Amino acid sequence: MTFAAADQVLTVAQMVAAEERLMDGGTDVHELMQRAGRGAAEYVWRMAAGAPHGHGVTVLCGPGNNGGDGYVIAEAIRERGGEVQVVAARDPGTDAARRAASLYRGRVADAGDAKGWILVDCLFGTGLSRMLSDGMNALLAGLAARHHRTVAIDVPSGIDSNTGAILAANLPHYALCIALGYWKRAHFLMPAMAHWDMARLVDIGAAKARGGAVTVSKPQLSVPAPDAHKYRRGLVAVVGGAMSGAALLASRAAAHGGAGYVKLLARGECGAPDWLVVQSTGDDGLSDALLDERIAAVLVGPGLGRDDNARARLNAALASGHRAVLDADALMLLDRPAAGAILTPHEGELSRLERHFGLSGGGKPDRAQALARASGAVVVAKGPDTVIAAPDGRIAFAGKAPSWLSVAGTGDVLAGLCAARLAVTADAWAAANEAVWLHGEAARLAGPAFHAGNLADHVQPAMANCL
């Protein structure tokens, strides 16, 4: 998978370094501020189009360069004939912000009098790492309450850009968050991302940054080759266990996810549909079944159970040498590194693995990276803010998926998708990224109030959207 600069996700330090490289190349900070502010003004202008007369845009400007961006936004709206006013929380405190303020020709209002249709929050930007003062918090919250919609520039004031932590006692909800130049980690992390409805990115002409994380982007898939057959397309072996339903669901997702052949290695009777090949392995025949060299990926965990037999089946899967996806119960039993595998833990499973490998502390990206290094596996730390990490340090952030995914069985669907894409690509990193995107797209297509079987069936149109 390839990613453009716009698909990168940076820490604050990486963002500062990227902007410094732009300036070293001849772009001064004033030009960067103009690009950022005028790009953001495009979104604000569109949103303000439906405002009734006399209910225009208020831009709350702080003392730093984020406040400077606000003055540029306000002037761009004024030049277009829009109703706009600035509320200055403090006087500009940087040369770039002072210059931007000097170029603004519109009205400066008192905070107590300002009301309107849209509030643009340019109070503080990505550099905030401590709690917002009570005075600034009250100023922001009071203005937001007197406006129809609130828009954040770069990140909302009161959010840590690196961790997504909330640094304000009373943070408003935002209709839109406009990132400048690059995405920041907070744009993809909870609890921050729950505080806005939409997020958009303004390009400032920055090249790809060194060491930046990436977004989980729409995969570019292809139809099977003209001479393809079921084994060449990828045989997925799903290891069944004590509870057949989860394994059947994962098998269904794997079939819709592009695998050429899905075989359920069942422990007992499972009531499988007629399209699914089932091989009964009992309590001691799994190792022999896994000798099939045509297996391209093995999935173990959904419905596995946690007894001694389940542990033996997990160990047989790991000993087989096949590329593996470990989910659910397998993650609660795993007691060794799993080099080359994909692990798909939710928060509880992630915590259990951290205890086993002696890991602790950090935000979700740091935790996923630490587990990837310790286990040798690609880690899909799933949840409302899914993060993918590889042992070599690569990291990817998934966009906001429908909250309807918070229903039993959707993790089994993701596991089946990971197995299918691993069988097709033979690349754990690519497979994890493709599976996470397809999972979110299937949820979007499924609409509201679906069950996991509905989700699995919507993988097929999600795949079609990538061809």
Salient structural properties:
Rossmann fold; twelve-stranded mixed beta sheet; alpha/beta; 2 domains; elongated; UDP-N-acetylmuramoyl-L-alanine:D-glutamate ligase; 16 helices; 467 residues; single chain
Structure description:
With 467 residues, this protein is α/β, with parallel strands linked by helices. It has two domains: 5-212, 3-Layer(aba) Sandwich (Rossmann fold), CATH 3.40.50; 230-464, 3-Layer(aba) Sandwich (UDP-N-acetylmuramoyl-L-alanine:D-glutamate ligase), CATH 3.40.1190.20. 38% of the residues lie in helices and 18% in strands. It contains 16 helices and 19 strands. It has helices spanning 12-24, 29-48, 65-79, 95-102, 134-145, 230-233, 244-256, 286-289, 308-319, 329-333, 347-357, 364-375, 410-425, 428-446, 452-457, 459-464, and strands at 8-10, 57-61, 84-88, 107-108, 116-122, 147-153, 174-180, 183-184, 196-202, 213-215, 235-239, 261-266, 277-280, 295-300, 324-326, 342-343, 378-381, 387-389, 395-397. The strands form two sheets. Strands 8-1-10-19-18-17-16-15-14-11-12-13 form a twelve-stranded mixed β-sheet, sandwiched between helices. It has a seven-stranded parallel β-sheet with strand order 4-3-2-5-6-7-9, with helices on both faces. The chain is elongated and about 80 Å long. The model has no long low-confidence stretch (mean pLDDT 95).
